[in-house]
Specification:
single chain; 306 residues; six-stranded mixed beta sheet; 7 helices; 16 strands; 21% helix
């Protein structure tokens, strides 16, 4: 079975690259060295995931009802335009600037696998098998693994993945996303900025907006992969670099959540006066989320909500 997938890159890897990348062309003028080059995600003429898209959830392992509601509410927030500004819907609206118009997400089926039927050490083939529990075009099957589930490459090289597989009896492909709960395995890598990073500047962690470091970290990674899925679902959409390891709509802007961000500092975000939690987006049911910057094709720059 042909499978293509992309990763939500570890924050710490990019942090190290941004700090220690060697300077080249030392004979050039200093002004040339500090000039920022425009960030361009080239369109590779492939199909994007546009129109009405169903998001199905496959929960592997034990998640509390509250944890599930945080993530389901996040999806519902992306098309909820009555939320106060800045909102998750306005963040998602940037995807409309990519070719093909809007991607209208709606929550579909939810499947609970609380008995760990595949064990607690999963390989990529297991993730694909779980995603195939629901097999349909114009849908995104989101596989979420609990905090006590290990996945090949998790914490070492990735916080999640997205990809596509053929749909039986159809010429189309089904898209999927996997995100793991990192709270007990690598919160400094996959739940930053709600936990101090292992490497780099040790700025104080932010208070998570929904009171769950692991799940609020999952929201950030799910947001990253959702944007990548609709704008580069089949490896021939919008991206920079090699197709096998692309920088996509949000992964090209890793570590940026507000204005004034720099490596190790997420930028200026909003703070709830009652809880002290940091956020930059309002959603349904009074939810608040911290969402990463997204590349805006109209300005060729990473766009933040605040």
């Amino acid at each position: 079975m042909a499978v293509n997938f992309h990763c939500a890159t570890l924050f710490t890897s990019l942090l190290l690259l941004s700090i220690f990348e060697p300077t080249v062309g030392t004979t050039r003028k200093l002004s040339a060295l500090v000039e920022q080059q425009p960030l361009v995600l080239r369109y590779h003429n492939g199909a994007l995931l546009k129109g009405n898209v169903t998001v199905n959830f496959i929960w592997y392992g034990k998640f509390s009802p509250i944890q599930r509601s945080i993530l389901v509410d996040f999806i519902q927030s992306l098309n909820y335009r009555r939320a106060p500004q800045p909102s998750a819907a306005s963040w998602w609206g940037t995807t409309e600037k990519y070719k093909g118009g809007s991607s209208n997400l709606a929550v579909g089926r939810q499947i609970l696998h609380e008995e760990y039927t595949l064990g607690k050490n999963l390989k990529h083939v297991h993730l694909v098998a779980l995603a195939h529990k629901i097999n349909a075009v114009n849908s995104i099957n989101v596989v979420l693994t609990a905090a006590d589930v290990a996945v090949d490459g998790f914490c070492m090289s990735r916080c999640g993945t997205h990809g596509a597989t053929p749909v039986k009896g159809s010429n189309g492909k089904s898209t999927y996303i996997w995100v793991g709960n990192s709270v007990s395995q690598c919160p400094g890598q996959c739940a930053w900025p709600f936990h101090q990073p292992i490497y780099g500047p040790q700025t104080p962690p932010l208070v998570s907006p929904n009171g769950d470091v692991g799940v609020d970290g999952m929201v950030i990674n799910l947001a990253t992969l959702l944007a990548g899925t609709v704008t580069n679902p089949f490896s021939d959409g919008y991206f920079q670099g090699p197709a096998a390891a692309p920088l996509e709509a949000v992964s090209a802007c890793t570590g940026v959540f507000g204005t004034g961000s720099y490596p190790g500092y997420p930028g200026q975000v909003l703070v709830d006066k009652t809880t002290g939690a940091s956020y930059n987006a309002h959603g349904v049911n009074g939810r608040k989320y911290l969402l990463p910057a997204m590349w805006d094709p109209q300005t060729s720059a990473c766009k933040t909500l605040v």
